[in-house]
Design a protein that fits this description.
Two copies of one chain form a homodimer.
Chain A (H helix, E strand, L loop, with lengths): L5 H11 L7 H29 L3 H11 L7 H8 L3 H13 L3 E5 L7 E5 L1 H21 L5 H21 L9
Antiparallel strand pairs in A: 1-2
Chain lengths: 174, 174
């Protein structure tokens, strides 16, 4: 457990086993992509916890709500964040305890409950978002602007390749 | 909900709010990296479920066990997969129901329980791993070998930058 780059070490040996030899270059690329994402996300999670005692899903929920001054229903949050209704309910409950969000009746339809950010939630979120940006800048800070541009365009190519090869998304009729 | 590239659309608008303007290039890069990883992982999850009725954590657990013919303790699995002991217990229980793993007493210390792959688990895993490799090859198939190489080296630079800027990992004393 002494390797600071555990995820790639782990995944590279693990996930390359029994894989077709001719798929190795693509697999190595996928594992490296996964490692980079995992390392950045882990560091952001840790800093959010250390600095603001907040988890990444709560931060993402605040980011969603910050764009919706009229609030969002649980169903809307669930769809936007691609998590189940059950998970959203717990998430909202915990962040309400922190004083960041509150439940309100919809102005037009009193049967509908909306989740909206409190003033404190907005203020704290703005501070968190600023620090989050500074963290990402620091984490990726060794890349030169030219490298960043090439990486952006190769990742756009990657995204297009994955989108082409993915099964079409079946949208819920709802 | 009609955008097939939902994650980046979602994250890009969301996570760029209130972020320092001078961090925008790095934030865009991070969001694109995250989008690529999310899209690939989502597609792999879907195919594992469709083809083999298996989740990604279970597939990763099989991959771990496949390398350990003598089996692993719950604690070892937990450390290798970086998940809590409680989660590992449930994961092992579900995959044992599928007939892929079994519990064994340690040969040297009968108090220790080891989780080991069954013959069926090994055979099915080999088939899954081969298909998984072919999927990744297909998903990343539009990238030319030269593009792949540049991307690999820029991701290595990214990884090094993140590692340098990350807080050192504090290992558990245990």
């Amino acid at each position: 457990m002494s390797d600071p780059d555990l995820p790639e070490t782990l995944d590279a040996e693990t996930r390359l086993a029994h894989q077709p030899r001719d798929a190795r270059p693509e697999l190595r690329l996928w594992l490296r992509l996964l490692t980079c994402t995992t390392m950045i996300e882990r560091e952001i999670r840790r800093r959010l916890a250390d600095r603001f005692q907040i988890t990444l899903p709560r931060f993402d929920l605040l980011a969603q709500l910050d764009k919706s001054p009229e609030g969002m229903t649980l169903g809307e949050i669930s769809r936007r964040m691609m998590v189940t209704n059950g998970n959203v309910t717990g998430l909202v409950a915990r962040i309400a305890e922190q004083g960041y969000v509150e439940r309100r009746r919809d102005e037009k339809d009193g049967r509908v409950q909306r989740i909206a950010m409190t003033e404190k939630g907005h203020e704290d979120f703005v501070r968190m978002a600023r620090e989050h940006g500074a963290w990402v800048r620091e984490l990726l800070g060794d890349l030169e602007p030219g490298e960043r541009e090439v990486l952006m365009s190769l990742l756009a190519r990657t995204k297009a390749s994955v989108a082409r090869a993915s099964a079409p998304r079946v949208e819920a009729a709802e």
